[in-house]
Amino acid sequence: MTDLHVYDTTLRDGAQQEGLNLSVSDKLAIAAHLDELGVGYIEGGWPGANPKDTEFFARAQHELRLQNATLAAFGATRRVGGNAADDPLVRALVDSGASVVTLVAKSHAGHVERALRTTLAENLEMIRDTVSFLRGEGRRVFLDAEHFFDGYAVDRAYALEAVRAAVEAGAEVVALCDTNGGMLPNQVADVVADVLDATSARLGIHCHNDTGCAVANSMAAVDAGATHVQGTVNGYGERTGNADLLTVVSNLQIKRGLALVEEPRLREATRIAHSISEITNVPPYSRQPYVGASAFAHKAGLHASAIKVDPDLYQHTDPTLVGNDMRMLVSDMAGRASIELKGRELGFDLAGDTELLTRVLTKVKDLELRGYTFDAADASFELLLRREVVGEAAHEYFEVESWRVITDARGDENALSEATVKVVAGGERVVATGEGNGPVNALDHALRQALSPAYPELDKLELIDFRVRILDAAHGTDAVTRVLIETSDGSTSWETVGVAGNIIEASWQALVDGVTYGLVRAGVPVR
Ligand SMILES: [Zn+2]
């Protein structure tokens, strides 16, 4: 392992993302995942300033069993004209129990004078006083130099003074922050190199993605000599987000050969990225580098035939290093080669079976013409292929006799839906009802209710995303509705598709595929 710090700020800076709200329990669960990933430091929040964060640190002491990571409490330098020892917010940092305190401080002369409204000298004194007080309390101190790059451009000498003040008072790391996210890699590299020359600081880097360069800027800083890198999982953060720590770590480890986290832990990156998405309730970004569902997905038929010969020709690294896998997208651009590869992915050797490959391809093309899409609905395609290869019976977990759903609203109350589903499963005819805030939700509840006596395994499945698209009238038919549903079992998720003239019918098809695939995936036998 190198001594480069991997410092995660998902729980503090990442949580600033619009629409992202984390409870204390959510934060504890995310911290456990981050620890599993092998990050060195987890910034838990701002105790004292935010009651939820105070509670997080209190509960973390009893509820988190960290194997790798050290918790860091985030806070600011003491108040203008005060005394660190008497400042309640500084005191709260000590009381949090965290052994590392990350202090945010101003290093931009303009911010000191106009935002903080104090003198340049007092700001330096606030840094010295707060860092030395915390050192005296036995804490390790990291300093986040806010707006550092912009401040350096305005007044280099003062920005350097702030760094020196922190180091002289005992700060272990000074993280240079591109708070506004406007830097480009060459600027970051030049500034980091200059600050290293001009001070004795150990430097860190904290980047925002406003120029789309957060990862590149972090890499440039490390190349220039920074040995502490901050970021958030999945690039969460306000505006355009922070540097995606998963990409930064994968780049440094896989491309640069630095050992930041133990190799088996990096192989959990894809699973952990998705598990954290479940907690934040922010849908995973399929095009996310390394860990996105599309990161190693290939579509074109031409590529597919070459990939069959040698996958390395068409991918930049081995997807299994980050726990992802190569995925063939099945689309009308694809040929028999991609179906064969997809089959291989699923454990079927279809190499010599031209007749079967042609049959599947014809079916896929026909369905795509009718509005289905299998690019996004891997699970529906897998079921289609399995039915062709293994035969229908292997996946007939249940037979649907009928379903119906009604929605009603009374007075000014919200509309509610109620569904009734009749199925035969495990040799029994079951009639079940379900309620929901919408018809699809109600049907989902009723279907799983009906199936749960025969298949209790379905209890842990959850419908997590539902997308509808009206497809234009084409090929001489009426407009149709395509529904994509994402179902999760808590650790992974899969997409299924339904197409029909009626939106509820399309949803029903996707729901049925979703639960069927859940059973196939869990290896449940037909009962
Ligand atoms: Zn930030």
TrEMBL record:
Alphabetical list of CDD domains matching this protein: DRE_TIM_LeuA3 (cd07941)
Listed EC numbers: 2.3.3.21
Secretion signal span: none
Pyruvate carboxyltransferase domain: residues covered: 4-267
Keywords: Amino-acid biosynthesis, Branched-chain amino acid biosynthesis, Isoleucine biosynthesis, Transferase
Catalytic activity: pyruvate + acetyl-CoA + H2O = (3R)-citramalate + CoA + H(+)
Keyword Cytoplasm: no
Pathway(s) where this gene product acts: Amino-acid biosynthesis; L-isoleucine biosynthesis; 2-oxobutanoate from pyruvate: step 1/3
GO biological process, one term: isoleucine biosynthetic process
Entry's Gene Ontology molecular function annotations: (R)-citramalate synthase activity; 2-isopropylmalate synthase activity; aspartic-type endopeptidase activity
SMART domains in the cross-refs: LeuA_dimer
Family: Belongs to the alpha-IPM synthase/homocitrate synthase family.
Identification of the protein by name: Citramalate synthase
The organism of origin for this protein: Pedococcus cremeus
Lineage of the organism: Bacteria, Bacillati, Actinomycetota, Actinomycetes, Micrococcales
